[in-house]
Amino acid sequence: MAYSDLREWIATLDRAGELKRIRAEVDPILEIAEITDRVSKGASKKYGKPGGPALLFENVKGAKSIPVLINQFGSERRMQMALGVDRLDEIAERIRQLLNMKSPEGFLEKLKMLPMLADMGKLFPRVVQTGPCKEVIKKKDFSLLDFPVLQCWPKDAGRFITLPCVITRDPRTGKRNVGMYRIQIYDATSAGMHWQRQKVAAEHYRDMLRLGAVADGNKPDVAQALLPIHAKRAGVDVMARSGGGSVLAEGERPSGKMEVAVAIGTEPALTFSAIVPAPPEVEEFIIAGFLRQKPVELVKCETVDLEVPASAEIVLEGYVKLDELRTEGPFGDHTGFYSLEDQYPVLHVTCITHRKDPIYATTIVGKPPMEDAWMGKAVERIFLPVMKLTLPEIVDVNLPVEGVFHNLMIVSIRKSYPGHARKVMNGIWALGQAMFTKCIIVVDEDVNVQEIADVVLKVSNNIDPERDIQFTLGPVDSLDHAARLPNFGSKMGIDATRKWPAEGFTRPWPDEILMDEKTKAQVERRWKELGIE
C-alpha cells in the first residue's frame, strides 16, 4: 500500500490500534523523550513488549497547536505496515527478482520484459506544479523555534531535528540525495548540519570545496590545504584526489554556498528510504517509489534549486556556507552514549513552507531497543539480497540490536575453501556503509544467526582465539568514541567456522550432540500422555 502522505499513515495506524493519542500537555524538553523511551522499551501495561504504540502528542507546550508524532516505526508490525507488506522478506524477494533479471536472448523474451520495464519506469519521481507542503509559504518573519523540536537527553546541546529528509544535489552530476542527518537548532534561522564525513551529503560538500579550489586556479589535490585548520575536522575535511583537471563546467564556479532542503513529516516509505545504505548513484526518491510501488511527487523549492516531496508536512530551505563551521553537539546517540561536540557546517534557513496545520514527525535514539532498532532490522532483511549479489556465499546476516548496527555483524556462510570466512570479512568491510562494522563473526550455514544462544554456543566452542581472530585498520563510524582517532581505528573478525585440514587443523572435529529423529518423534507422540504440561 502506498500512503499519500503522513496523515493517511497516521489514520491507518489509528484504525489498526497501533496509535496512542495523548491529549495531556507535555513538554518537548526531555519529557516527551522520557515518555517515549518507556513506551518503546515496553514499560506500559497495555503494550507489555518492546515497541509499544506510535504516539501522537496533541498538546505540546509552546508548540502553537502543532502535534508531535513519534515511535511510528517502533515495532516489526508497523515497519511491515509502513512498507505495505505482510513480511519484510516480500521486499527482499522483489529486489532478488530485479537483481536476477537476465538479458533477453530473443524477440519474444524482449516482448515479455516490456511490461516489467514499463512498471519500473513508473516508479521514478515526478515533478508537479504544487502540493500540500506549499499551503503556507514564509520567506520572512519565520522561526525554527515555532516548531516543537525536542531536546531528548539532559546533556544534549539543545533541541535537535532527528527525523529529517535532508536533500542535496551532487555538484558534478546533478543527482539528488536524501539522507537523514540530525540538525541542532541554534536560533530562529540557523542550525547545525551534522552530516558525518562518510555520508553522501558530506561528499557533496567536499566536492563543492574542491570545485572552489579549481576555480581559484589550484589543483583538486591541494584543496585540503586551502581550508582553515579547524575545517579539517568533523564531516568537512577534504581528502586529496589523485589526478588533476577541472571538473567545473566552462565559465562556472561555486558560489561559496551549497543549497540544502529539509523535508519533515514525509510518508513512511520515503522517510525509511533516507536511512537505507543505497549506492550514491541511486536516488532515494527512486528507492521510495520502488518500496511503495508508486512514484514520489516532488515540487520545486521557493528559494533554492532543489525539489522536495509535495506532501511533506514541513519544508526548510536554505544553504550552508563553504567556509563556515560551528560547534554542534553533544547529542545522546543510538550507541547509548553522548556523541561529543565537534565542528560542522551551519544551515542558514531562507524559507519555510508547511501545511496549514502541520504535524511534526520526530524520533529519539539512545540505549536500545528504541524505534531505530526496528528500522535497522528492516534494512538488514530488505538489503540481504544486495549483499548476496557481491558475496553469494552468505546465507543470512544478523545485526543484533544491542550491537547498535555498526558494532557487530553475525554472518553465516556456505564455506567452500580454506580461508573463506576471512574473504567474507574483507568483502563486507568493502561494502559501502558496512565498512564501519567493528566486529564481524562468521559461522557455518547450519548456525541460526538470529538465535543468539546458538551463536554464542558455536562461537565460544569453535574458536582458538589466537588462530581465529584477525584485526585490521580502517575507517570507523564517527560515533565510535573508543577508536584511537576520530573516524579511524581497528576492526575485528572472528572465524567461528569448522576448521579444515587445509587450514592446518588436523585433529578430529567432534559431532554436535543431537537426538535421533525416531526418538524425537516417539516422545512427541507421547507428550500429552506424560502429563508434563
Task: Write structural notes for this entry.
There is one protein chain. Among the domains are: 125-361, Electron Transport, Fmn-binding Protein, Chain A (Pnp Oxidase, Chain A), CATH 2.30.110.10; 391-503, UbiD C-terminal domain-like (3-Layer(aba) Sandwich), CATH 3.40.1670. Helix content is 27%, strand content 22%. It contains 14 helices and 23 strands. The protein has helices at residues 6-15, 31-40, 76-82, 89-99, 107-121, 200-215, 268-273, 284-292, 371-382, 384-390, 420-429, 452-462, 465-468, 517-530; strands at 19-22, 54-57, 68-70, 126-127, 136-138, 160-161, 164-169, 176-179, 183-185, 190-193, 257-264, 297-300, 307-309, 314-328, 331-332, 338-339, 342-354, 360-361, 394-398, 408-413, 439-444, 469-475, 488-495. Strands 5, 6, 7, 8, 9, 10, 11, 14 and 17 form a 9-stranded antiparallel sheet that branches. Residues 219-251 have low confidence and may be disordered.
